Structure of Heparinase II/III family protein:
Amino acid sequence: MSTVQTKIRRLMEMPLRAAMKKIADKAIQEARFAYRQYRISRSPITLRPELFRSFESSSHFLVDPAKRQQYKEVLIAEGLNQEIIRDADQICEHVFNLLGSGDVHLGSSLPWHEDFKTGFRWENKFYKWIKIVDLDNVADVKVPWELSRFQHLFTFGKAYWLTDDEKYACEFKAQIDDWILRNPVEMSVNWSCAMDVAIRAANWIAAVPFFRKSPSIPDSFWESLHATLYLHGVFIRGNLENTGEHTGNHYTANLAGLVALGLYFGSFTLQSNQPHGGSPEEWLSFGMTEMEKEMFVQVNGDGTNYEASTSYHRLVAEMFLVTTIWCSQNGLYFSDRYLKRLEKMHEFMLSIMKPNGLTPLVGDADDGRYLIVSRYGSWVRSDFRHLMAVAGEFFDRDDFRAAGLGSAEDALWIAGRIKPVLEQGDTLMKSSAFSDGGYYVLRSREAYCLIRCGELSFHGHGAHSHNDQLSFELNVKGQDIIVDPGSYVYSADFRARNLFRSTAVHSTLQIDELEQNDIEERNLFLLREQTFALCDSFTDHHFSGSHQGYLTKAGFIHRREMKLEEAGLVIVDTMEKVGVSSDPAPSVSISLMLAPGVKVTGHQMNWVLETSGCRVAIAFEGAAEVMLHDAWVSASYGTRIRSQLLRVHTRNLSLKMNIRWE
């Protein structure tokens, strides 16, 4: 069903009065947009740069220019200087690797409005009339948005301080000048998402301390930059992403951007031509007040994020943490209750971290970040240790610091210090349960197993959820054996999007070809709750849970019991029949998504999985057939690599897997 057909169907399902009101509201909105476009075409939205001639931010930045030499010494001592300079030089040459593109030279003029992976270009027009998603077009709007976030500027700044080479300052100026010229306010695709406007503003501000004293940058540039930054604040305040069914990471980004802009401009007020959209003092007050509220809307009591995605948990935690630190450096503080919930967000990340230091990418993942202050060209999307290092300094916790070892640079730039780990304590992590978020971790000395069992994102809306109930990841002796398939892409390929969030590619059970939660083919961010998964029992070595995804469709509840032993994992899947029926037993399949690189041998009911230093044997009891299929695993947005999937078939209502390692 097309998007238009879906909208028509929903209108027809509404009561007549509600449908008529929706049509009238839409007509009024379109008229307002037409008038707005007419006004902008006659008089573009600008502020005279000279209004900012005397402006100099009095706020404290995350980066302290007075510590320039100290930063340089640490970077050199840590052996990071060459990588930083290499990344910065590549960006100066306009070579970028964004969202799975691989290294691409983007030409002398950066394609701010183009998905350079496909060549599709969005024309400059009123932002409300730009069609950012067309499921019949393979273009991905996230590509120009990602480039226009300017998260590479921090790397420029570091290289500039390391080398004193003015080419970095000149490139910093040239890129921002070019972007401002080619992206009139409200008149390009890069104004169509307030989240990206906010992230861009924060990254421009974060880069200012590096270049503010550069002799290559005239005062006129700073006046122009400040005028545009101010208009970013006006735009965000007037386009908050809080009008839908739920707030989420987009709204958090809006608020973080308003706080950054409010801190930056402080009590500065325009003497004339004050645009609608509040003042910097109001942005700061509103942003902090709303962030305090959103901490308890979006973050569950156990510290998990209610979008049911570990990747979005990382993004939201980063925006909360960076904003909190930025405010504290300026003498502004959130409540103790807020800080405790923020600390719990990082306790959750610590608890689900695998022995290899990486984190399962459960649910959606789009590589979203707020500020990228280290390893711009090489950061690993499933590595959350950069946040643990920062949290270790902010909360003064050695367990966070120990988890973040190797990410000292992030702590240096954001928290402003790096303290040695004084006491690591017991290095063997314990099993842990996060019932609010729906994550359960079984641990032994040699094994790690994360199980997904809980509510879909946004309290059942499922925007960033996958059909992964009772699916699991298994890591043995530090080696990934069974993994989540990842996300791959969103709107650029709706069929691939639906494949990567489908039941069949997750390590769980499927009846016939039914989905746990129904997928609407062209509605990519809706997965209405049908599973209602529950954990029945959990101990250090045992998990038992169930979901109802097949109850109304086939009359069964899926139950899974998992017992972690010293050198093995026993899994029992049971299909519990609800009601009386003479129908034959359904066809049942269980998938095991293998980590890329795992070598597979075996036949019939006995299989062996081998990877570096680890051999895992699996025996199936109650299976009729076990087959090996080619599959894909995505470790980052826009990329996928070949892997394999074991798929077990049976008509028995119970199946047992004995997984042993040596």
